[in-house]
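Checklist before submission:
- one chain only
- standard amino acids only
- sequence pasted in full

Submission:
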Amino acid sequence: MRALSENDLIELWERGAARSPVDRALLLLAVASPEAPATALADLSVTERDARVLDLRMGLFGEQFSGIAECPHCSESLEFHLQGTTLRTSERATNVEFLTVGGLRFRLPSSRDLAAFADGVGFDEDESTRTRKLVQRCCLNATAATNWDGALCEAAEAALDALTSDAGLQLRFRCDACGTEWETPLDICSWLWTEVDRRARALLDEVHRLARAYGWEEQSILAMTPTRRAAYLERCSP
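Returned file contents:
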């Protein structure tokens, strides 16, 4: 993974601003794995994708994660801080990417799979129908004679969910107010994109202020060191 300049970060944000969550995840993955072709990245399992994006996030913004979680029982707000290395260890503890249900072999879904059944695709289909089709798409040895009854689909869906949860990024909480304990998945692609969006907009604000005050071009402003830019910003009128 190459280092991103501030200009690179703004360009990444610009490319993904109007994209879907799946497309944004693939943009982040491409930054994390610049040597890999886009087609290969789209076919990585979502857990491998998230592992690489986690590494990218720690390279860009450090290992510290901070946020607010709400207790599902009493709605108490919990502030949390954790290290990305803990998430990485948890995520890579499970290396299984395939499972067998009812004699059928399934793989974990990829970004390409998720894009094919994203919200808004097939307006006449409800979420359960799209989920069933996704499960069928991830089957490696189905035939035309395979009987996709409700029980088989539900069992396969549950097994894939469990495998994804075991291999994915999970946050574990305990509410001090009521004692409730729960787990929730961390959508690292969404988390990182939010940080990219926040940082890009802050940089654009800085460019706007300095360009307005001194008439400098964007590239000249972004080429400054953060220390020098901050010094000029201090001298700009509010």
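Reviewer check: The chain has a mean pLDDT of 89.
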